[in-house]
């Protein structure tokens, strides 16, 4: 037993265990579950019933069986490749997006540390710069899928995706620069702990959304555009270019694109929670000084999950409420409105910090 | 190797020797494509995302309506007209029957005409709702599509109540209608219209003033008055350009001259104007239906002229005229006097005209239908060139092409 504990506490082993727990037990299941949640919620918005037919015996579980049915269907579908496609690139493209989406969770803490043990795969010094590096990797998924498919629709989708994602990356970084300045670090644990401070005694927590309200809006917009979800889903453009860059895919590879989208959705929600809504810190919990450690950790996980789910829901709601931008409008919005705004935000933040701190 | 030769060699695919240096890409949109609701093919030339050329190819849904009609009796054509415009079949029923009535030189009783106005306006609303829903869906507002379809469902239930079918209505006859108003129809009607108004208000709040939506449709696919006229536009597409032409007013048929309604017009003829014109026409149609329901006269719903419909059974068995009428109608069918007429009516998309030629026998010599969409699809290149590829979607949506009516 003790030997087992010792093995577990080896940093490398511990990291692997955390990866398995966070990715396989949190990110992927939540991403999968969101596909159902999205279908159910959109059905509610649109006065429909939503998926409710797949069943085992008489058990439908309000449509939860559709997850199993969809998974099985994708596995048994033929994995097609169009004539003239670039074989190797075509085959690996779907996994760039998925890997990038999953890698986001490496630096997100879901609860406060207990002693040396952290609820975070790794707390690296560059922190958020890692996120930027990883999200720019996910561009390759769309670009390679679009260009290697040997299809004109896919090519249009791929070029749209590359232009959009690269542009939005620019001010996604700029929008977050304010956060770095306010909390004085790029390390995620530092930013989260910085948000545990309070203004006016213990009245208002110093959450990112209060210190950087404009930064929050800009960063959220950039992230939604980065994940290519509505209203920024011109790369998919299901009405004019059919499905855009993943038009030619079928079976499990197609599912990898879909799963990547939903995992990225969870990633966006958890990033927003971590950076702008106090991360795992439960506000005003420090007033209860005698709180036992285990209860605090559980409360922290609950708080983190609730906020994450809220922002997942918010993105779903957004998708089913607004029409989508045309591709050139997406670019105009990015370069002409959001980029100047994020620069202004940066200067104002710098000025305030210089003047008052 | 100079820079130029590098460029040259890159622009040629080594394996196929194909030349990729031309900047124009030809792309086939349709015949099977999500945005091509019927079946039509748009061969589009793209420079990047910009459309530089387009050719519309139609005929994928040709079923030989006109030829088929020539091989039928006059009355047997009515079911074929159901299948012309499959989102507003009653308007084609009415148009054809009124054309044959014009050939005969008779009129349907007033009660039949008022009922036709009500059912025709219901169909116009379903037509417009389908079009608006499709436009909204294709620019990403899927929710509104389902809301509009929900509203359309209320009205199709009324159509079902009246005709017994949702699509294959086969409701009008020469000189009247197949059925009178069913019991409780008018009260159902006012309930449904109230629900429809709620949906319209809801959509108005969330869609018509939505910035993204306006950006997508404003100044997209605009066409000038002169071009619209020279292409032969009619209906909402023409009215969106600012010309208040409506067959219901311009060539007042049925009882439309007794009803009070306005003809909404746009100013620029872009997709947004078409959207607004259709929205307003739905409201005007609701008001027409309400007026017609108030004024609904008592009386017969079928003309009492001889040889227009089967005589009553007591006449068939009781007197010689009835027996002969019945025999001749069964054996020879309706026999309109020899001549040719053109009867325009206002359909959902524009002017539905029937050109009929009769030689006095029971068989039509020529049944020609003027489809409103034909002119719109012909103008697709003029409306799309210079816009982005994503604009094909709202433009083609607002054209509201109905394959059945276009290809016949």
TrEMBL record, chain A:
Subcellular location: Cell membrane; Membrane
Top-level division of the source organism's lineage: Bacteria
Reactions catalysed according to its record: a quinone + NADH + 5 H(+)(in) = a quinol + NAD(+) + 4 H(+)(out)
Keyword NAD: yes
Species annotation: SAR324 cluster bacterium
Membership in a protein family: Belongs to the complex I subunit 1 family.
UniProt protein name: NADH-quinone oxidoreductase subunit H
Lineage: Bacteria, Deltaproteobacteria, SAR324 cluster
Molecular-function annotations in GO: NADH dehydrogenase activity; oxidoreductase activity, acting on NAD(P)H, quinone or similar compound as acceptor; quinone binding
Transmembrane segments: 12-36, 87-108, 128-145, 166-184, 204-225, 262-282, 294-316, 337-356
Keyword terms, alphabetized: Cell membrane, Membrane, NAD, Quinone, Translocase, Transmembrane, Transmembrane helix, Ubiquinone
């Amino acid at each position: 037993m003790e030997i087992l504990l010792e093995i577990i506490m080896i940093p490398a082993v511990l990291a692997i265990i955390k990866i398995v727990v966070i990715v396989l037990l949190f990110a992927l299941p939540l991403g999968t579950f969101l596909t159902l949640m999205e279908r159910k919620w959109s059905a509610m918005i649109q006065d429909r019933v939503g998926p409710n037919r797949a069943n085992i015996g008489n058990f439908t579980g309000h449509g939860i069986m559709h997850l199993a049915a969809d998974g099985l269907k994708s596995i048994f579908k033929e994995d097609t490749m169009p004539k003239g496609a670039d074989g190797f690139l075509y085959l690996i493209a779907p996994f760039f997006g998925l890997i990038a989406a999953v890698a986001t969770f490496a630096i997100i803490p879901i609860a406060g540390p207990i002693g040396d043990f952290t609820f975070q795969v790794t707390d690296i010094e560059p922190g958020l710069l890692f996120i930027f590096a990883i999200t720019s990797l996910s561009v390759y998924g769309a670009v390679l899928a679009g260009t290697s498919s040997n299809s004109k629709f896919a090519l249009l989708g791929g070029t749209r995706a590359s232009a959009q994602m690269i542009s939005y990356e620019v001010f996604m970084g700029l929008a977050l620069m304010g956060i770095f300045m306010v909390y004085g670090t790029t390390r995620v644990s530092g930013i989260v702990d910085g948000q545990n401070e309070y203004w006016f005694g213990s009245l208002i927590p110093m959450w990112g959304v209060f210190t950087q309200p404009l930064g929050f809006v800009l960063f959220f917009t950039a992230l939604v555009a980065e994940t290519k979800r509505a209203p920024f889903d011109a790369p998919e453009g299901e009405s004019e270019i059919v499905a855009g860059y993943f038009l030619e895919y079928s079976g499990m590879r197609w599912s990898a694109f879909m799963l990547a989208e939903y995992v990225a959705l969870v990633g966006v929600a958890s990033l927003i929670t971590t950076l702008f809504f106090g991360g795992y810190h439960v506000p005003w919990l420090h007033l209860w000084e005698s709180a036992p450690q285990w209860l605090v950790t559980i409360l922290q996980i609950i708080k983190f999950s609730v906020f994450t789910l809220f922002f997942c829901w918010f993105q779903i709601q957004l998708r089913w409420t607004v029409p989508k931008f045309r591709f050139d409008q997406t670019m105009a919005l990015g370069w002409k409105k959001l980029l100047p705004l994020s620069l202004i935000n940066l200067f104002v933040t710098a000025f305030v910090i210089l003047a008052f701190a | 190797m100079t820079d130029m030769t590098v460029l040259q060699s890159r622009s040629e695919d080594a394996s196929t020797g194909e030349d990729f240096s031309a900047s124009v890409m030809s792309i086939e949109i349709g015949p099977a494509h999500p945005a091509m609701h019927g079946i039509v093919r748009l061969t589009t030339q793209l420079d990047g995302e910009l459309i530089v050329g387009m050719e519309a190819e139609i005929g994928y849904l040709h079923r030989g309506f006109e030829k088929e009609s020539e091989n039928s009796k006059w009355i047997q054509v009515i079911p074929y007209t159901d299948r012309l415009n499959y989102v507003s079949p009653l308007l084609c029923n009415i148009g054809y029957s009124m054309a044959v009535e014009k050939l005969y030189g008779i009129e349907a009783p007033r009660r039949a005409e008022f009922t036709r106005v009500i059912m025709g306006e219901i169909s116009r609303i379903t037509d417009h709702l389908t079009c608006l829903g499709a436009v909204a869906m294709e620019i990403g507002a899927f929710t509104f599509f389902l809301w509009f379809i929900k509203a359309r469902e209320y009205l199709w239930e009324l159509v079902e109540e009246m005709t017994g079918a949702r699509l294959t209505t086969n409701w009008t006859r020469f000189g009247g209608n197949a059925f009178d108003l069913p019991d409780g129809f008018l009260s159902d009607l006012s309930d449904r219209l109230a629900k429809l108004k709620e949906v319209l208000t809801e959509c108005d709040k969330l869609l018509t003033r939505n910035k993204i939506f306006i950006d997508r449709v404003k100044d997209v696919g605009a066409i000038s008055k002169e071009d619209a006229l020279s292409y032969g536009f009619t209906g909402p597409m023409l009215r969106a350009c600012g010309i208040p032409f409506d067959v219901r007013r311009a060539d007042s048929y049925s009882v439309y001259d007794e009803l009070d309604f306005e003809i909404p017009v746009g100013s620029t003829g872009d997709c947004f104007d078409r959207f607004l014109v259709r929205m307003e026409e739905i409201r005007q149609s609701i008001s027409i239906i309400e007026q017609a329901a108030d004024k609904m006269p008592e009386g017969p719903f079928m003309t009492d002229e001889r040889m227009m419909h089967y005589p009553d059974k007591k006449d068939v068995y009781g007197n010689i005229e009835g027996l002969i009428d019945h025999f001749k109608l069964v054996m020879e069918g309706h026999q309109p006097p020899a001549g040719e007429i053109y009867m325009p009516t206002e359909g959902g998309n524009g002017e539905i005209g029937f050109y009929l030629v009769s030689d006095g026998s029971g068989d039509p010599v020529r049944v020609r239908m003027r489809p409103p969409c034909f002119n719109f699809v012909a103008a697709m290149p003029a409306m799309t060139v210079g816009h982005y590829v994503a604009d094909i979607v709202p433009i083609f949506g607002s054209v509201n092409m109905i394959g059945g009516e276009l290809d016949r």
